[in-house]
Specification:
Helix content: 25-40%
Strand content: 15-25%
Bound molecules: nicotinamide-adenine-dinucleotide
Structural class: alpha/beta
Oligomer: single chain
């Protein structure tokens, strides 16, 4: 990629007004406040490296205040005992407010994260709206069951009545990553609030701006004080303190598998419940009976959308040998045609990666692939004023034991291999410590369903990729996580099941 020059378009008025505030605050017990130490940290526009805001650098003390506020709000029932229809209305109102402010939120997300504007404006933030609407509906449908028992030792003339009820789990610590900040935050907050929990949200240090704006909108929607609390800061400080805190009942985490392990260790103290949405190295399989043009476009989108910074990115391509050259050439042509630039430019199809550290890491992975003998079909280098733009890259001549094939790169980097028969490709696709998602392209539904059964992945798409909906559970098998976000399954993450058994 020749060096990339671009203008930075001006943000819209609302986004600019937000940026003009410059220094942002935590939200604790209904009040906006600086970190208790007064320390701040910078958040950067990754395209340019320019500082676009200061966030409170929170530590244990701030986290403790936020957890205390969330605990009080949970224990006095101001949210959990609010009638479900009222909780439902507030969740719906949050969705409306996100929608009303979507242009501002999308631009802030782009400025902070780098993503091309359309990704936030048309995919992710509408996805966040849908999370709140979907769980608004479920807030009124949290039901237990009556259970017939075989108990026979009750006194003569008495009966046994047994039932279950579901109760909110309590105070939830939500810790989220930087790749798709708003929608991933919504995936935690919406079901937790529907269940009646109170929360402390810790956004990723790279991308806290839309979390600040979202929490403002949530307060405006009428959430009682203390129900949502926000602490900004670094993972090792604020995140770790939240994961360790003895008054937190549950951690809902999305991020890397390495951090997921740290969260588990930190959660041991009070044996808090933990759900983990972690990394992936998802296979995309193109069978010899696939609609080839659709599969080429689909496989390219699966890895290049949001610069490949997507947990379910289709980063390992397995293509039938009869189509391999045509498919890889087709994907390379798409890759070379992708317009890179500042995310705020409407013509941009791929923005920078989230930070210089991350783009260096992605380039190191590409170098390791080359060093191990892989060939670069296209891409392979970084550019831009801040060195954060990584060209969409396709590597061939890869082997199953290469680091670039086994580890999550989290960038626009595809490794492509050929196969000849179905059993061979199923075993190659399953040969991973991850099990988040998989895609299969075939015009035969029986082939597709056979693969869906055989692949060890939390989601399998047939003739598509990344088809998300608030109603569809998403999460991983193996080291891709514990539990599911989205869908009715996600609500259960935030509920305890109580059994009541009475003699009457
Ligand atoms: P990360 O694990 O570095 O950070 C995620 C969050 O954890 C951030 O808020 C960070 O500050 C915090 N954190 C870091 N160290 C911590 C600690 N010791 N204690 C508590 N919190 C800590 O992940 P990332 O680099 O921000 O995100 C990318 C990863 O997220 C990728 O692996 C990606 O696959 C994964 N991801 C998974 C899903 C999914 O649904 N499975 C979705 C999106 C992203």
């Amino acid at each position: 990629m020749t060096d990339l020059a671009f203008e930075t378009p001006k943000p819209n008025q609302a986004a600019q007004a937000f940026l003009d505030r410059r220094e942002h605050r935590n939200f604790v017990g209904g009040a906006w406040q600086a970190s208790q130490s007064g320390d701040t940290f910078e958040t950067l526009d990754p395209a340019t490296g320019e500082c676009i805001g200061l966030l409170p650098r929170s530590n244990k003390v701030d986290v403790d205040q936020a957890v205390t506020a969330a605990r009080a709000a949970f224990d006095d029932g101001r949210w959990s005992k609010m009638i479900p229809m009222e909780r439902s209305k507030i969740l719906w109102r949050i969705a409306d407010l996100i929608e009303e402010n979507i242009d501002e939120l999308a631009e802030l997300e782009t400025l902070d994260q780098g993503k091309a504007l359309y990704v936030g404006r048309w995919a992710e933030i509408p996805g966040a709206v849908n999370q709140f609407r979907y769980f608004s509906g479920l807030a009124t449908k949290i039901e237990g069951s009556t259970i017939p028992t075989s108990i026979n030792y009750q006194p003569e003339g008495k009966e046994v009545f047994a039932y279950t009820q579901k109760e909110p789990i309590g105070v939830v610590g939500a810790i989220v990553p930087w790749n798709s900040p708003l929608v991933l935050t919504a995936m935690k907050l919406a079901p937790a609030l529907a269940a009646g929990c109170t929360l402390v949200l810790k956004p990723a240090e790279n991308t806290s701006l839309t979390a600040v704006r979202l929490v403002e909108l949530m307060a405006e929607a009428g959430l009682p004080d203390g129900v949502i609390n926000l602490v900004c800061g670094y993972g090792a400080e604020a995140g770790q303190a939240l994961a360790e805190h003895s008054q937190v009942d549950k951690i809902a985490f999305t991020g890397s598998t390495a951090t997921g392990r740290r969260i588990l260790d930190a959660a041991q103290g009070n044996l808090k419940k933990v759900t983990l949405e972690l990394g992936g190295k998802s296979p995309v399989i193109i069978m010899d009976d696939a609609d080839v043009d659709a599969a080429i476009q689909g496989a390219a989108n699966a890895i290049f959308f949001n610069g490949g910074q997507v947990c379910i990115a289709g980063s390992r391509l397995y293509c039938h040998s009869s189509l391999f050259d045509r498919v890889t050439q087709g994907i390379a042509e798409i890759a070379q045609g992708i317009k890179m630039g500042h995310g705020l430019d409407q013509a941009t199809q791929m923005g920078p990666l989230v930070s210089r550290e991350h783009s260096s890491k992605v380039c190191e992975y590409i170098d390791s692939g080359k060093g191990d003998g892989a060939s670069i079909l296209c891409g392979g280098d970084a550019a831009g004023p801040n060195g954060t733009f990584v060209a969409p890259t396709v590597l061939t001549d890869v082997k199953a034991d290469m680091q670039i094939v086994r580890e999550e790169v989290f960038g626009p980097v595809l490794v492509a291999s050929a196969f000849d028969d179905a059993d061979e490709v199923i075993s190659a696709a399953n040969d991973s410590e991850y099990g988040l998602a998989a895609g299969v392209w075939s015009e035969s539904l029986s082939n597709g369903l056979r693969f869906a059964n055989a692949l060890r992945a939390g989601t399998v798409w047939i003739n598509g990729h990344a088809m998300y909906d608030a109603s569809l559970p998403i999460g991983g098998m193996k080291q891709s996580g514990w539990g599911r976000d989205s869908g009715q399954a996600a609500l259960e993450n935030y509920l305890e099941l109580k059994t009541v058994c009475a003699i009457h």
